[in-house]
UniProtKB/TrEMBL annotation:
Protein name stated in the entry: M6 family metalloprotease-like protein
Origin species: Kibdelosporangium banguiense
Source species, domain of life: Bacteria
Protein keywords: Signal
Signal peptide per UniProt: 1-23
Length: 691
């Protein structure tokens, strides 16, 4: 959307009301409120009340048909001789405290999970996997059909499948062989049933796009920690109830613990469960089916690290997380009420059931974001054309024709694309490995739709790879720039003895406060400079429309050139008005971009880039001469299209005993050409604060 000179920043409520109940009754001291305050939320504290619908959409309508591709899924439900479906058991009767609902007859289990995944209902809180993909693709892609089969009883015990990974076979009871292949055995039973019923099976998936195997019990990834180190101080403390049952360990000689994927041990009962993987298989506790579908349908890998190992000896092998809660292919797959420690409930409608949306890189990779909605620009061209300014709409919302869902900056030019100095991933936990990164993306996260359970609103800046590689110490392709890179200081959990275990430097919640925000004193940053890659990123303004849809005005500038156009700025005569009686007034300065529109638009990929190049960005500063007077801005940046005017507010307050007046001076300086600057005074009297 072309900026037309209308003020691009939204000013929050600025007047602090009288403080009730004070002895003197004096009004509160005037403060300039941040226009975009940071309010990140811990996933632990989220509930279903945090869900917010996207205005004008109804992606969870099971009758809504995708416009391009409807996926055909066969749901095959299986249980085991030693593990019935949890939802067939009395409410909260099993060792893990499940199910959370009244029991379902075994014959109804396949239909129950079909409806759980596909039909809005009381159990899934109205959220479905069809809805997720319809939202991400804006109606292009969804689940066209899900047929159910089963329930089938597999020939082996659950632990014979579950102890077949992560070095766990040593925990296999005597007389059993823990080398089961759940996918193979489930498919064998399913295909035998099809054959008996005369249903043709023309290929390995019997004509379906994917076979979804839903198996009785738990996904080990959702319980290894909760029913391991979070429940027991030491592996020796694990009681028999959590060890092998007497039916397979009659002499009670086996340990009650077993190895697990990330740390040395968990309870045997937790380890005995199958680890859900992208084959696709899902336990009754698994809410990550959308994540597994991302692997399967779009060949997008995991972008997540290992935040658990060697807590006592950081940083090695710790590696900072890549995109964490901001993307479904990272730990954003664990978003949802209560976060990642609430993924043990059955049905799995807490942490994990409302994953984050896909980041812009992944939507481009999957081909589900319209090219016209991505401003695709070149690092090299920026130096020749001058900076770009655009308004970017929250990624969960369709910005409409001509709108922008994100900005992509290609790291083109001579030499390797990412020119960041080399670092060592084996000694520096914040090193991303340097090679393979070839573009930046800027996008807006607004907490609605499947982004409702992201930790905050704001602007996400990320460095990305077109092709995946393991330079981060793990497979990675998104690297979110952390606007607040310090340790976030969260307690992960408390051990049974009360000892707090802090979130490690590699924990995904270290990026809960990573978004950039507009304006001053937000608690976050409004700009970021990548000196090595010669780029400067700006967050200039914020806006919410009447439906609550969030958008930001963003800019990107080259440090190596600002284009051939003449730059200019002029401040006009300010108007003065009161904003808090007896304390504060406002000087409203007209600011005009007196420079030229872009004279060169060549080199960028997007065909609509021309209108994005006509702005300049101005850095603002203010001073006050009067004793007892203070002048403040709510934003250090503004922008205007060539020939257009915007308004810059300056807030001026005084304390008792101050001079009767002050002279406030606003200075505006072009970011494209710092020699272009203009200053103008504004005189404010005590009487002006009362008008």
């Amino acid at each position: 959307m072309r900026l037309t000179g209308v003020l691009v920043l939204t000013v929050a409520a600025l007047v602090a009301g009288s403080v009730p109940g004070t002895a003197t009754g004096n009004p509160a001291r005037f403060e300039v409120a941040p226009i975009d305050p940071q309010h990140w939320q811990n996933q632990y504290d989220m509930t279903w009340a945090d869900w917010k619908n996207i205005p004008g959409t109804k992606w969870n309508d099971p009758n809504a048909r995708p416009s391009e591709r409807g996926l055909r899924i066969a749901l095959v439900a299986v249980d085991f001789p030693d593990q019935p479906f949890v939802i067939t058991q009395p409410k909260q009767s099993d060792l893990f405290g499940n199910p959370q609902i009244d029991p379902i007859p075994r014959a109804d289990v396949p239909k129950f999970y079909h409806d759980y995944y596909m039909i809005p209902n009381q159990y899934n809180h109205g959220r479905t996997i069809h809805e997720y993909w319809m939202e991400q693709s804006r109606g292009k892609l969804g689940v066209g059909k899900m047929d159910v089969f089963g329930a089938y009883r597999l020939p082996r015990n659950l632990f014979e499948y579950g102890l077949n990974e992560w070095g766990q076979t040593a925990a296999c009871p005597k007389g059993f062989t823990c080398d089961g292949n759940l996918d193979r055995d489930a498919d064998t039973g399913w295909k035998a049933d099809l054959a008996a019923r005369g249903i043709p099976c023309p290929d390995s998936r019997c004509g379906y796009d994917v076979v979804l195997r839903v198996y009785a019990g738990y996904d080990e990834t959702s319980i290894w920690q909760e029913y391991g180190e979070m429940m027991f101080n030491r592996k020796e403390d694990i009681p028999d109830a959590w060890g092998p049952p007497a039916s397979v360990d009659p002499d009670n000689t086996m340990p009650n613990w077993a190895p697990t994927r990330y740390v040395e041990w968990t309870s045997w009962r937790a380890a005995a469960q199958q680890w859900g993987l992208s084959s696709i298989r899902q336990a009754e506790s698994s809410g990550t089916i959308t994540h597994e579908m991302g692997h399967y349908f779009f060949n997008i890998g995991d972008n997540n690290n290992n935040p658990f190992s060697d807590r006592q000896n950081p940083p090695s092998p710790f590696h900072r997380v890549g995109s964490a809660p901001w993307d479904m292919m990272d730990r954003g797959s664990f978003n949802g009420p209560g976060g990642h420690h609430m993924r043990w409930v059955i049905p799995p409608n807490m942490g994990g059931w409302s994953p984050a949306g896909l980041m812009l890189r992944n939507k481009i990779h999957a081909g589900i974001v319209p090219t016209a909605n991505v401003l695709d620009i070149s690092r090299e061209a920026l130096a020749r054309t001058g900076l770009v300014v655009d308004t970017v709409t929250a990624r969960a919302v369709d910005p409409g024709f001509g709108g922008t869902s994100g900005i992509k900056v290609r790291l083109d030019g001579a030499g390797r694309p990412d020119r960041t100095p080399d670092c060592n991933i084996n000694t520096d936990p914040f090193c991303h490995g340097n090679t393979g990164w070839d573009h930046y993306t800027l996008e807006v996260v607004g907490r609605m739709g499947f982004d409702s359970f992201t930790p905050d609103n704001g602007v996400v800046i990320a460095k990305n790879k077109t092709a995946e590689s393991n330079t981060c110490g793990y497979n990675c392709f998104n690297w979110v720039v952390d606007a607040n890179p310090g340790d976030i200081g969260l307690v992960d959990f408390y051990r049974p003895d009360g000892t707090p275990v802090m979130a490690s430097i590699a924990d995904h919640r270290q990026l809960n406060d990573a978004t950039f925000r507009a304006g001053l004193n937000s608690g976050s940053a409004y700009e970021w400079v990548d000196q090595a890659n010669r780029l400067h990123f700006y967050v200039i303004g914020i806006r919410r429309d009447g439906n609550g849809v969030l958008s930001y005005t963003l800019a990107v500038r080259s440090l190596d050139g600002s284009g051939p156009q003449r730059r200019g700025v002029r401040l006009g005569r300010p108007t003065v008005s009161s904003v808090q009686p007896g304390q504060a007034a406002k000087c409203s300065f007209p600011l005009t971009n007196t420079g030229q529109a872009a004279t060169n638009t060549a080199g960028h990929t997007s065909t609509n880039v021309a209108s994005k190049l006509d702005n300049d960005v101005y850095r603002l500063s203010v001073s006050s001469r009067g004793r007892g007077w203070t002048a403040q801005l709510d934003n250090a940046l503004t922008t205007a299209t060539a020939g257009r005017t915007v308004t810059v507010p300056v807030y001026v307050s005084h304390t008792p005993g101050s001079d009767q007046s002050t002279t406030v001076t606003l200075t505006a300086k072009s970011e494209s050409n710092p020699t272009v600057t203009h200053s103008l005074p504004c005189t404010v009297n005590v009487d002006d604060t009362t008008r």
